[in-house]
Amino acid sequence: MPPIPPDRQDMSLPGLVGCRKCPRLVEYLGSLPPRKGLERADYWNRPVAGFGDTGARVFLLGLAPGAHGANRTGRPFTGDGAGDFMYPLLHEAGFASQAEAFEMGDGLVLRDLYISNAVKCVPPENKPVAEEFNRCRPYIAEELKRLSDLRVVVALGQGAFTSYLRLLKSQGVITRLSDFPFGHGAVYRMGDGPWLVASYHTSRYNIQTKRMTVKMFRDLLGRVAALAAGENG
Ligand code: SF4
What we know:
Blueprint: H1 23-31, E1 51-52, E2 58-62, H2 70-73, H3 81-92, E3 113-117, H4 130-146, E4 152-156, H5 158-170, E5 187-189, E6 195-199, H6 204-208, H7 214-228
Helix pairs in contact: 3-7
Bound molecules: iron/sulfur cluster.
């Protein structure tokens, strides 16, 4: 199992790496076949913690680890198509120290950005079920609590967006999820909390079908950077 290098920048959430609260996901982790040419021992195959700048103003929340990306490397969006799309644009926008993200210990450092997933264990067919979102939501709450300078939450995809809204509802910040429809580029502010920016996911499928393009994500990051800097227009 790969060691955790010092540049991991994770928050070391208590109980996360050994968490086994979701039986379906634990079973899946125990049976997931490795990619051709690799062994199961080459895989992280555990809950994947968030990583990045713990003083960040921007929190990017994805859905769940990719089977052969984050679940293999142990770091969100690292080693698969979603990250290959995203990190060059994060680097261009000044949020990432380099455009490449291929494994823990590759030197990548995030600035003013923390990245995590709504569900920390890889789900079958990339589809967590409602109970899995619910069980994992306290970890998001803890991450948010520790990001004391937070100004913008970027939810990648409807699953992450809805899970974040459910958290706000459980905290009494909002009353109805339907007041906040999902759409790429939608921006909301609830009270004096952080902005919420919705984005289509950077999944390989969305990229191949051009539902998500380089221009769309670049423009979105520009808006996110402006909101983080206090420009509300
Ligand atoms: S998805 Fe979250 S709550 Fe479920 S086992 Fe993994 S870390 Fe635990």
